[in-house]
Amino acid sequence: MSPSEPEIRALLADPGEALRLWYAQYLAAEEDPDLILAGGGRPSPGQLAEFFDRWLDSSRDRLRIVLCERLRYARLGERSKQVGEVALVGLVATLLTDVAAELVIDPLSTAAVLVVRRRLDTLCPPDAVAPTP
Fold this sequence. Notes:
The protein is an all-alpha fold. It contains eight helices and no strands. It has helices spanning 5-13, 15-30, 45-71, 78-83, 85-97, 100-103, 107-116, 119-123. Helix 1 (5-13) packs across helix 5, helix 2 (15-30) crosses helix 3 and helix 5 (85-97) crosses helix 7 (107-116). The protein starts with a helix and ends in a 10-residue tail after the last helix.
């Protein structure tokens, strides 16, 4: 099921909530000891961002295949990246659905965090995309 525009807009408007949703799904399924706070407290927004970045680094190779190659993100112009945030989140979430179980993620919140924090820019730089034959 594709995410709805209101769901996407809500996550784009509240990036902290997108991070919290991503973390809740990841923590519930994985319980990675590196991403659990000692004492069981709630992570701060900064800690959530750090956890997401660690996860992104560990998942980088798989995400590049799923997103950079299929989406051809690096070839999108700056204007289409910003004007089409809702569409971009929807597309990224759809692509992530194929690997959600493997990567232990919620596709929608992960897509929103990738777009809002501009992680697609670093994940899919222009030189990371192989030229089309």
